[in-house]
Design a protein that fits this description.
Blueprint: H1 4-12, E1 19-20, E2 26-27, H2 30-39, E3 52-57, H3 61-72, E4 78-83, H4 86-96, E5 100-104, H5 112-121, E6 129-134, H6 139-148, E7 152-155, H7 160-167, H8 170-178
Parallel strand pairs: 3-4, 3-5, 5-6, 6-7
Antiparallel strand pairs: 1-2
Length: 182
């Protein structure tokens, strides 16, 4: 899975053909995506289940619960699970195959750095998007986790608007809220 921000950057750089809407959003034709993937040796995956599966991994039960409620309430096509530590996460990753991991860096036992490294080292899970979060948001920690393969590292307390944008849910949520109810 590729983040919407990455896809937009590819379009801005002219690497993939895209059409701009009047409000500045990008639209992609499927055959353009197929061509782009073929040219770069990428594999397009087709998930019959169109739900986005998100696994929140944090030893802070309150934050995990808050994020679960926030994300579950956005869209019925989002499935959210939580894990309280890296060991619990490994089991849920194998059975639930999440598309996105919201991963705390500092947890007892198996920390976020180790979980990220394991996922990115395994061909079966390396496509999983990983967004990390930490109360220890230092330049060293950010550089280390990005080098291991995370897509982003957010400081706690989290800015939920930024989180939703990173997840690709920010604009979709606004559009859903703006639609008149039936």
């Amino acid at each position: 899975m590729v983040s919407p921000l990455t896809l937009q950057q590819w379009a801005r750089n002219g690497w993939i053909s895209a059409h701009n809407t009047s409000d500045g959003q990008y639209r992609f034709l499927y055959h353009d995506l197929e061509y782009f993937a073929h040219e770069r040796g990428l594999t397009l995956t087709h998930d019959d289940d169109n739900r986005t599966r998100i696994l929140i991994v944090d030893d802070d039960f309150q934050l995990s619960g808050y994020l679960r409620e926030l994300l579950s309430g956005l869209n019925h096509n989002i499935e959210v699970e939580t894990a309280n530590d890296g060991f619990d996460a490994n089991g849920k990753i194998q059975t639930g195959q999440p598309h996105i991991l919201l991963l705390d860096l500092m947890m007892p036992g198996l920390n976020g750095f180790d979980v990220c490294h394991q996922l990115k080292s395994n061909p079966a899970t390396q496509a999983t998007r990983i967004i990390t979060m930490t109360g220890y948001h230092t330049p060293e920690n950010v550089e280390r986790i990005l080098n291991v393969g995370a897509e982003a590292c957010m400081a706690k307390p989290l800015d939920t608007d930024t989180l939703l944008i990173l997840l690709g849910l920010g604009e979709e949520t606004k559009a859903t809220e703006a639609r008149p109810s039936k």
